[in-house]
Specification:
With about 150 residues, this protein is of the alpha/beta class.
């Protein structure tokens, strides 16, 4: 058995791709449109997983966009998606500059949380050892929930 992907339904594909690709830095590996089923699937991978994802050996994030509008709620059983990053401070700064709210700042130099346009909680983790505490992160309060 092998873990393949996590699927999340998105209400606005363009806004979701802007968040996951342009802001978070994931890479689109493939896309499937099904006219009969009236949906689009977009598969994303972390840049370091790109080659393995194209060979179907690395987990991916599947965005499912149903063409007919539908309101989605977040189930209580779903927690969050998690990604490691080489520099958590740089990624959080990039996200903030792009208008993304940092719900749980990386005060410890190790972990932060943000939310996607569809309110999916995203955990960001520092690769390797935690970075030394630094401002503005050390004194930044939590915003909302994650």
């Amino acid at each position: 058995m092998r873990y393949v992907h996590t699927m999340v339904r998105v209400s606005d594909l363009d806004a979701s791709l802007d968040f996951y690709v342009n802001k978070l830095g994931l890479v689109e590996t493939r896309r499937m449109e099904n006219e009969k089923g009236r949906y689009t699937l977009v598969f994303l991978a972390a840049p370091k997983d790109m080659a393995a994802a194209q060979e179907k050996r690395a987990p991916e994030l599947e965005l499912t966009y149903n063409w007919d509008p539908e309101a989605y709620g977040i189930g209580r059983a779903f927690g969050h998606l998690a990604y490691r990053t080489d520099d958590i401070y740089a990624l959080c700064r990039k996200l903030m500059d792009a208008g993304v709210t940092i719900n749980r700042p990386p005060r410890d130099g190790r972990m932060a949380f943000v939310r996607s346009p569809d309110d999916i909680s995203i955990e960001l983790l520092q690769e390797g050892d935690a970075l030394p505490p630094a401002e503005p992160w050390s004194s930044m309060p939590n915003t909302g929930s994650w």
